[in-house]
Amino acid sequence: MLALFMYPVSGILKLWHSLVHSVVPENAAWLISLVLLVLTVRGLIAPLNWMSVLAGRRAALMRPEKLELDERKKQASSVAEMKELLKEEQALTKKYNYNPLVGCLPSLIMIPAFLGLYRVILGMAQPQAKDHIGLLNHHDVEAFRATELSNIPLPAYVSMPADTANYLGVTGDDVRSFITPLLIAALVCTVLNMIISQARTYSTLQYDQGVTRRMFYFMIVMTALIPFMLWSAAMTGPVPVAVILYWFCSNLFTLLQTIVFEFILRKRYPLTDAVHDLRRRSRAAFKENKRQAKPSKAEKDAERDRKRTQAKLQGEARKELMAEKRAQKAAAESGSATGSTPAPESTDTASADSIPTDPTATGPDAADTAPTDPAPSSPAAANADAADTTPTDPPQFNSADPSANSSEQTGRHHLRDD
Question: What residue spans carry the Low complexity bias annotation (predicted)?
Fold first, then answer.
């Protein structure tokens, strides 16, 4: 499964080597290509990291309003009330442009990229590994393994056996003295990066939420343990020099990226006073809960029943909202279809409006050209129809000479008789 992730990473490494090899010697080409590989992969993943960090900050900014809505949900007693609260929650997430999937999706993409990058470097650096790694052929792998950094081969590691040391022409002590500065620098970058991340988490931590609080404490412990774990793995495990170089480049990039992200968050997405006040109130509530006695079984059962009722109301309200969305979507589709094919009513109206009429016509001709309306169902409707169909312009009679109008009508009657 991991071999699938090695192909794109090895392809990037081979591309960089083909570009760099034309400028610098073979020995330096693989070292520069290794650094460029790390920068390329981490640079491609950087936007995903930013999406994850930004999603966390948006969640923190909307949390005060979100918790207020949650409290109102607890007091909801009907599906209609719960539906209104869900609409407000949707409007809130739209206001902050928050999508919870954005915080999870980048990790699902970054982890395979990290695994592929690590597997390519580890496979190329181990002398006993296979000679064909991803898109790199036998010649590429052998040239990479022959690359040296300060007379230390990239596949060498501290705890390598004697036959491997004789094959590479270097001892474990030489490797230890060379990798110690790189390893210390990599560990310093790792610790600083974790400290900045934990400081960001602390500024929005909810102490009264057990899972969040325990995860924060766990990460503090890991911040102290990870340097010892990495040091032990580098000094006692089969960790080649190439992997140590990768650790240094990757952790340095991560530290610089974290600093840049933190600067952007503080400038463009600063935490509000409501967020800080919420953190202080959650800490006070956590201390108060520690002093209080544990809830009785009856209280736990009542709280469990309340949560079940709330979940049931939310489920029914969500079903109704989904039904409304489907109905609106169907109405919009039918409306677009109706707009492309005119309805008969609109056709009749358009044809009636397009008939030219003589504004001075009266008598039978005017009755023939006038559109007929259906009979009203009630007197009130008749009055309304009469009000609606009353022309805005009065009939254009010649008020100065009424006899002209009557003579015109008489002339028309004579024409019909003829």
Answer: 330-343, 356-372, 378-391
- CA atoms of 202 and 216, how far apart (whole Å): 8
Q: How far is C-alpha 237 from the geometric centre of its chain's CA atoms? A: 39
| pLDDT confidence tier of residue 265, bands split at 50, 70 and 90 | very high
Closest CA to 200 of 104, 59, 37, 322: 59
Question: Which residue shows structure tokens 């707009």?
Answer: 339
Rg (CA), the chain: 39
- Which tens digits make up the pLDDT trace of 169-201? 888 899 999 999 999 999 999 999 999 999 999
d(CA 119, CA 3) in angstroms, rounded, equals 8
Task: Look up residue 179 and give its amino acid.
Answer: I
Burial class (CB in 10 A: 0-12, 13-18, 19+), 198: middle
What percentage of the chain's residues is helix, strand, coil (to nearest 5)?
A: 75, 0, 20
The neighbour count for residue 126, using CB atoms within 10 Å, is 18
Q: What phi and psi values does residue 149 have, to the nearest 5 degrees?
A: -125, 110
What digits encode the pLDDT tens for the residues 296-355?
888 888 888 888 888 888 888 888 888 888 888 888 888 777 765 444 444 443 333 433
Q: What is the three-class DSSP state of 136?
A: strand
For residue 266, pLDDT over 90 is answered with: yes
